[in-house]
Amino acid sequence: MYSRKIKDETLSFGHEGVLFKKSFIMYDKKTRTLWLHTTGRAIKGKRKGDQLTFFPSRVMTWADWKKQYPKTKVLTGPKGSRFMGHFGLRDKPRAYGWVLGQGDTTKMYPYGVLQRAPFLQDQFGGRAVVIHLDKEMMSATAFAAGKRRFMLKNKQVIDQDGLVWFLATGRSADGKHALDPIAITPWLQQRWRGFYPKGDVYPAKPLR
Amino acid sequence: MRIRCLLLFLVVSSVANADIEEEYDRLARQVVPRDGFPVLFDPVLTPVDKAKGIGEKEPVIGVVVDGDAQAFPISIMGRHELANIVCGKKPLTVSW
Description:
Chain A is mainly beta. Chain A has two domains: about 5-45, no CATH class; about 60-70 and about 90-200, 3-layer Sandwich (Rieske Iron-sulfur Protein). Chain A is about 10% helix and about 40% strand. In chain A, the strands form five sheets. Chain A has a four-stranded antiparallel β-sheet, with no helix packed on it. In chain B, about 30% of the residues lie in helices and about 30% in strands. Chain B starts with a helix and ends with a strand.
């Protein structure tokens, strides 16, 4: 998910119908510039080089989402074909990873690493982050941790003050606190490497 | 051997520095007509109590801005691929 606002202008995107490096191409209605759906980068046209900003979103079951957000609105209407509306991450999870950042600063957290722990604490872009993978939904969430440090106690995620947290939503169990969400995007690891040859992978490989 | 190494280096470095637009012109494939997928613009969303036909276990892409929560079932996004939306006054694009 991206913000459509760039340099004080709001863009609307259409579908170019083109595949490039297994990523589909969007075009903006105003300038017909072509944008890569996977990276948010303008690659051809007047706005070439411009970058859309990722916006935090998440994938949940409809039941869980409604429970978390009882006043939600939802898109309804005809469904896509089985192929296009299929959630492919579940078929071969190990091929995927979740990525923070974009442009020159990106970091991949492979499924194999995320699935081992209930959450992961790391430094990214100069700040402390906490990342959680819902294995059943194959959906990751990331939040700025600030000064909070998380730990597991009696199967609950708590911080140093004993506050209980739900990392699927970034909200405290008492509903009084919320962490600042950070956009995190699922990628096929190999495809990501094709776009970001210099991107970091967690954990950093030890120096030889 | 040295010349071969140099040639290989030149080829590798030119590929690494290749302009993405040139690469696009070479590799892009038109697979469906432009806007062959019915992209959504400011779609009208349904309040939760009136929403029908969405399975409880269906995955949805969810976004919240300033208390405005919106959900986009992946099964429906598969038909549109792209939705230009506004959530809590923020213009966003949902892509699948």
